Amino acid sequence: MITFDQEDIAFANEVFSFARQHLGSNLRRKVASELRPDKAESVAWQKALWKRGWGAPAWPTQYGGCGWSLKRQYIFKRELGRAFAPDPSPFGLQMIGPVVYTFGSPEQKEQYLPSILSADTWWCQGFSEPNSGSDLASLTTQARVDGDTYVISGQKIWTSLAHWADKMFCLARTERSLKPQAGISMLVLDMHAPGVTVRPIITIDGHHHLNEVFLDNVRVPKANLIGEPGKGWTYAKFLLGNERIGIANIPRLRRRMDALRQLGAIEFGGGRPADDVSIRRAISEFEVDLVSLEQAELRALARGEENSSGIADASILKVQATELLQRGDALLARMLGARSAIMPSSESRVTSDEGAMLWGIMPALLHGRASTIYGGSNEIQRNIIASGILDANG
Ligand SMILES: Cc1cc2nc3c(=O)[nH]c(=O)nc-3n(C[C@H](O)[C@H](O)[C@H](O)COP(=O)(O)OP(=O)(O)OC[C@H]3O[C@@H](n4cnc5c(N)ncnc54)[C@H](O)[C@@H]3O)c2cc1C
C-alpha cells in the first residue's frame, strides 16, 4: 500500500507553488476550461519544467530525467493537475523517449532525447492507417531499402498534431513474407522531408487536432531505424502501454469532480442544479467511481514500486477513466443546460476562474467521445483484460 509522509507533502507543496508561480493566468484558465493550449504555450511550459530540472519525471537521470519513484511521479502529476497545468505533449516524453533510451542506438539517444526534454522538437505518432486501427498489424505503409536509406510510401491517419511536428515515429512494413507483426519496423522521419504531405481533419469540436499524413517515397537514412528491423511491433506494444497510462489522466477527472461540485452550487435564477435529487445522485456516483479509480491507480502504483504488474493495469485504468470522463462531461452539460452550447475557440480568453469552469464544456464533451477510441479502443482494452485474466487462470 502507498503511504505519504512529511517529505511527500513538502514535495507536493513545492510542485503546486512552482506551477502557480510559473503558469500565466490565461493558460491556467484555458486548462481549467478544457480549451487547448497552443504550441507556443505547451513548449513554454515544458521549457519551464525542464529548466527547473523536472523535464521528464519518469526518465532515468542518465538521460536527463528525474529518475523519480512512481510515487513521486504520481504526486508531481497530481499537483500539476490541481494547479491547472497543461498536460505535457505525450509523443516525445511518454512515447518515443522511453523507446529510444530502451531500444535506440547511442547516436539516437544523443540526437533525440535532449530536444524532447527541452521541447525543441515536436513529435507525432504515425501508427494508424485508413484500414489499420485496431488491427494495426495489417498496416501497409512500406519501407524499402535503397542503398543506405529506407524509402517510405503509404498513408497515416488520425495523426494528432502532425501539423506542429518536426518528426514522426512511424510503423512501416519492411518485410512482407513473414507473419504480419514480424515484418514491421519503427522508423523516424523528418516531417519537413520531400514527399511528406499533411492534410487537416477538423473534428466535431471544431478544432484542427488531427491529420492525414501522406508519405510519397520519403527517404529516411538507415540510421533512423529504431532498434532492429522487424522488431517494430515489440517497440510499439511497449510504447502503447505507456500511452494508455497517460490517457487515464486522473488529475483531469479530479478537476471534473471539482467543477461538478462548484457548478451544482451555483444559483442560476431558477435554483441550483444540485437542488435536483437526480443530479445530486449522479454527482455522488461520479465521486464514488472516481475514488475507486484512484484506489485502483494507487494499487497499480504499489505493484509497480514492487516491480510487479497487475493483469492489464494500463488497460483497466484507461477504460474506467475514459468512461468516467464522458459521464462527467455529459453531467456538466446537463447541469448547464443551454449554456453548455457555447463553442469557444482555442484563442478565446477566459476572464475569471469561475468563467473558466463554464466555458469549454461542449468542446470537451465532444472531443471526449474520442477518448474511448484513441490509444486502442475500449473494446480492444476489454479484450486485453479478458485474455489477461483467462491466461492468468490457465
Ligand atoms: C482523437 C484521436 C486521436 C488519435 N491520434 C492518433 C495518433 O496520433 N496517431 C495514431 O497513429 N493514431 C491515432 N488515432 C487513431 C486510433 O489509435 C484509432 O482510431 C484506434 O486505434 C481505432 O482504430 P480505427 O479508428 O481504425 O477503428 P476500427 O479499428 O475500425 O474499429 C471500429 C470499431 O470496431 C471495434 N473493434 C475493432 N476490432 C475489434 C475487436 N477485435 N473486438 C471488439 N471490437 C472491435 C472498435 O472498438 C471500434 O468501436 C487517434 C484517434 C482519435 C480518435
Describe the structure.
The structure is a single chain. This protein is an alpha+beta fold and 394 residues long. Helices cover 49% and strands 13% of the residues. It is built from 13 helices and 7 strands. It has helices at 6-22, 25-32, 39-51, 70-82, 90-103, 106-117, 232-248, 250-264, 277-305, 313-336, 353-359, 361-368, 378-392, and strands at 123-126, 142-146, 149-157, 167-173, 184-190, 196-202, 208-221. Strands 2-3-7-6 form a 4-stranded antiparallel sheet, with no helix packed on it. Helix 4 packs parallel to helix 8 (250-264), helix 5 runs antiparallel to helix 6 and helix 7 (232-248) runs parallel beside helix 10 (313-336). The mean pLDDT is 91. Bound molecules: flavin-adenine dinucleotide. Flavin-adenine dinucleotide (FAD) binds next to strand 1 and helix 13.
Describe the protein's topology:
Elements (H helix, E strand, L loop, with lengths): L5 H17 L2 H8 L6 H13 L18 H13 L7 H14 L2 H12 L5 E4 L15 E5 L2 E9 L9 E7 L10 E7 L5 E7 L5 E14 L10 H17 L1 H15 L12 H29 L7 H24 L16 H7 L1 H8 L9 H15 L2
Parallel strand pairs: 1-4
Antiparallel strand pairs: 2-3, 3-7, 4-5, 6-7
Helix pairs in contact: 1-4, 4-8, 5-6, 5-7, 7-10, 8-9, 8-10, 9-10, 10-12, 10-13
The structure holds flavin-adenine dinucleotide.
